[in-house]
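>> received
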Amino acid sequence: MRQGTFTCPSGATLITSELGFGGAPLGNLFTAIPEEVAEQTLAATWDAGMRLYDTAPLYGLGLSEARVGGFLSQKPRDSFTLSTKAGRVLEDCPPAEATPDKFVDTPSRRIVYDYSYDGVMRSFEQSLDRLGLDRIDILLCHDVDIFTHGTKEASDARAAEFLAGGYRAFVKLRDEGTVRAIGAGLNEWQISEHLARQGDFDLFLLAGRYTLLEQEALESFLPLCAERGIGILLGGAYNSGILATGAVVGAVYNYTPAPAEIRVRVDAIEQICTAHNVPLAAAALQFPLAHPQVISVIPGVRSPDEVARAMATFAHPIPAALWSDLREAGLLRADAPVPGGAS
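>> returned
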């Protein structure tokens, strides 16, 4: 796996790797992970060559940050890139008042959404404490999207709150050097584009919206990023499951059971992959990196075995004819870059 660097629009140079580490599973997403397994998993990612690590206060109410920071604090500080997020302040509380969402066996904390200047500063200081590090390489505004807040009106209000307050904190932290790059981590390209047009951002973490299944971000958001030199960290390459499992019974898309039209499309994609002896997951994991603005794909892994599987999936050879066949079948946009530069 190749490692490299990315020079941000603001001038900072960040270490990157084609595959990065998505820290949500280490927050005990859905199931608890013992400490020793978490440590072994992080060691396996390092040994595999991953050098970009993404986490967030949300992930296990700080548990993921503590685990990732504990591991990375043993490494030379300039040998990796660490990303975390702001927008949720964590407050200690009685266990009955905790808000763990999809995470289990978490610390007793409640989430308070706060995208103001003061809220970002509090969130940042809390993250530094949990991580045990003196700086964060990438700070991302987390989840000012419809997926999180329920309606466009609520999303717009949170984005406005951030732009009026939290954004100033982001810029101040970047100017001071305690943060090297700023951006947002979101589940929708439309709100990502809105923010990109309003501020001076270095990177966006886009989850699930530029995949083998969805390429609408090519309409305007990704061209804007190319124009401004903004990098993309790509999360959700499997659209939360279905591009890894295929259209099986119970397949998950966007964290809920996949609707019929999604299952039909994924089944058609998988048939073409099978005809070329390529696992669906391999095509899904490798596809996004062909776009020049995508600097890293960050799958979530929860064990050394999953790290090994991700590496094998990423290394699986894919013939150019697979991409051509997907285009001819209308399953891949004609303007979507593909691995190897196949036309």
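>> Residues 99 and 299 are 25 Å apart (CA to CA).
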